[in-house]
Amino acid sequence: MFNKKKRHVYAAEEPVENRPRFEEVWPESAGTLPAVVDDAELIVTQEDSLCFDLALPDHPAHRFQVRSSWGSLYLRDERQCLAWKYLADEPPPTPEPGCDHIRKKDRVWLCWDDEAGRLAVSRYRNREDRNNSVPLHSLRYGISATPPSLSTSLVAVAVAMLVDGERLVIGWVREEQIGSATVRIAVSTLLAFPAVDPAKLIWVLERHPETLPTLWPLLAEPVRVAGTTEGPVPTWLNRVLDVALLYADHLREAARRGLIPEDAAAWPGLAELAARPGKSAALAKARSLLAAVRDGGRR
After folding, report:
1. Rounded CA gap, 8 and 11, in Å?
2. Mutual orientation of helices 152-160 and 180-190 as an angle, nearest 10°?
3. Among 43, 81, 88, 273, which is disulfide-ready with 110 (CB 3.0 to 4.6 Å)?
4. Distance of alpha carbon 52 from alpha carbon 45, whole angstroms
5. Helices 180-190 and 217-227, packing angle to 10 deg
6. Which pLDDT value is given to residue 71?
7. What is the rounded end-to-end Cα distance, in angstroms, of the chain?
8. Which residues pair with residue 50 across a beta bridge?
9. CB burial class (10 A; 0-12, 13-18, 19+) of residue 209?
């Protein structure tokens, strides 16, 4: 569709009439829920599946491991994670080959406790009735009790699972269950770990423009990290910049209207990328994006 010489600025070549209008993509209140910060420390590794090991401030003697192969069902339907509890001074447990279940004595549930204001740990799937049969809230079982909030670590687990095309986050965005402030913290946390590849997360923005007001940190945070880290630019940067260029006009307008925080609207790291010497595709795209978000794409 586009010749190779112009590919790095393909977003600018897209016919204007084919782009959704700003108001269609970015309603005024979209993505504005405040962050629910749980203060957990998160480590992400890759084994047969993504593993998320959490250290919680009020459980210093233990760590809690969530695996992506367990996490999506319970997060989607119940707003909680099935986790494996183990001692902090021991290595995480390893399931037997071909077995990804948790031993009953080590099984716990992680859920944000709105009343206590913390990420709570329970032996019970239904912590109120102290049983493991039916949860307090569940989309699957049609239980309509008020769902708990989604804290930064739970959202980080869900966002990382976008690598496998998980649609969990899209549902939360459409239901206005999470905001960009929580996503920004979650993405910033995830980018510290090589197991998470930003280029594999941003498909959701390409296919679902309506998620942009909530998921724009999937673009801005990787650019910040790439621009403020010494050494060669990450291999994933090219792909991230492609999608950022696709929405450059919308992102610039959102910044002008104050719908993106001022510090993020300044695109930290982007000017540093644009100023690097060289003619690589990623650096050319960084210069194009910088021009687009600053002056309307006059190149």
Report:
1. 8
2. 70
3. 81
4. 7
5. 40
6. 65
7. 21
8. 46
9. middle
